[in-house]
Amino acid sequence: MAAPKSQACFLLTVLFVGFSCAFVNSSGRFGRSCPRTVTRAAAADRPVVAVVGANGRTGSLAVEAIAKGGLAKARALTRSGNWQPEDASINQEQFEVGQADVTDASSLAAAFAGVAAVVFAAAYSRGKTKPQDVDNAGLVNCAKAVLEQGVERLVVVSSASVTRPYAPVGILLNTIGSGVLSEKLEGEDKVKELFEGSESSYTIVRPGGLTMEPPAGFVELQFNQGDTYVGSVPRADVAAVCAVAASDPLNSGANKTFEMFKGRGRSPLLPWYRGKTRYMVGGVSDCSAMLARLRPDKEVYDIPGALPIGLADFEMVWARPK
Ligand SMILES: NC(=O)c1ccc[n+]([C@@H]2O[C@H](COP(=O)([O-])OP(=O)(O)OC[C@H]3O[C@@H](n4cnc5c(N)ncnc54)[C@H](OP(=O)(O)O)[C@@H]3O)[C@@H](O)[C@H]2O)c1
Ligand SMILES: *[C@@H]1O[C@H](CO)[C@@H](O)[C@H](O)[C@H]1NC(C)=O
Ligand SMILES: *[C@@H]1O[C@H](CO)[C@@H](O)[C@H](O)[C@H]1NC(C)=O
User: Fold this and answer.
1) Taking each helix axis from N to C terminus, what angle separates 168-176 and 180-195, rounded to the nearest 10 degrees?
2) Cα(26) to centroid of ligand 2, in Å?
3) Options 3.40.50.2020, 3.40.50.720, 1.20.140.10, 3.40.50.300; which CATH number does 33-318 get?
4) Looking at ligand 3, which residue's alpha carbon is closest to its atom 11?
5) Which tens digits make up the pLDDT trace of 270-285?
6) Where is the NAD(P)-binding domain (predicted)?
């Protein structure tokens, strides 16, 4: 069995070198060019990942996940320009703080200068701001600033059910949330359009109902594509996934859109979607590997409709490799 063993060895070496090199080059970006001696980059040389909406519940956890992940320095962007970690183990070297309002394009240019990735975690707040301005136009402002500043990646926190305004959850959220799902979907679509032919990539994370529970951990999570399921998920898990999508050296989430929820308790968005998805990924402890198993958006095609008809080629392929 010498041959397979040496192949495995080779593969491990390649993976290791690929991974280590991707720890940033001297310009502080996620460059793949490999310096001769590879060491884990000192905190000061790490690429910077900015989080907009960093005072939000998910945004704040995303800043902490990036800071603690060790692959990048976090830049917490808030409207006030103030941010403090809740987690006392995070030190001043692991993050910086800046000001950004997604409705003010000029604030974004300065806030995104020199960053390698942006995580969009801003959202309207009921009674104060409108989804149209924050979740849609605000996201588009960020996407434009990302392209203008040559930022490599944009990770967007959107929502499950955005393409299902006719599902019970869709009806509910659009009604109580002033069309929030429709605005988020429009924003997503414009990001994809803007990024077409650019050198940047996007990752759109669509969580189910958010909770403040402790993180369930990657192995408990499921990612799906095609928007056929919903469930609940702790914000801490959403934040952890965003941190990986933004800083994973392989950029495994590039140009992918997916829903996420805890495997336990998830349910189909419409009763006739049950069991019918070929895109579910779960039971994996390595988030980057989970992202890698998702399909680029251009390959996600068997999207069922509002009615339980026309599902002929929407076959049941539940068993993705674990
Ligand atoms: N709630 C759910 O069950 C659910 C389900 C699926 C998806 N989602 C989505 O998940 C995301 C995160 O939700 P969350 O509940 O964690 O968020 P959140 O706590 O409501 O935080 C949203 C943050 O957005 C910021 N913000 C508002 N307007 C802004 C602007 N113009 N510029 C910059 N920042 C702005 C606010 O920052 P300030 O601190 O500066 O005011 C606020 O801290 C949202 O997009 C939400 O729609 C939620
Ligand atoms: C670092 O990476 C960037 C982006 O890939 C690249 O343009 C640049 O030339 C690299 N710098 C060095 C010193 O390798
Ligand atoms: C993502 O899409 C952009 C725009 O089409 C493209 O330039 C880029 O190479 C893609 N990235 C990956 C990793 O597929």
Assistant:
1) 100
2) 7
3) 3.40.50.720
4) 201
5) 998 987 688 999 999 9
6) 53-249
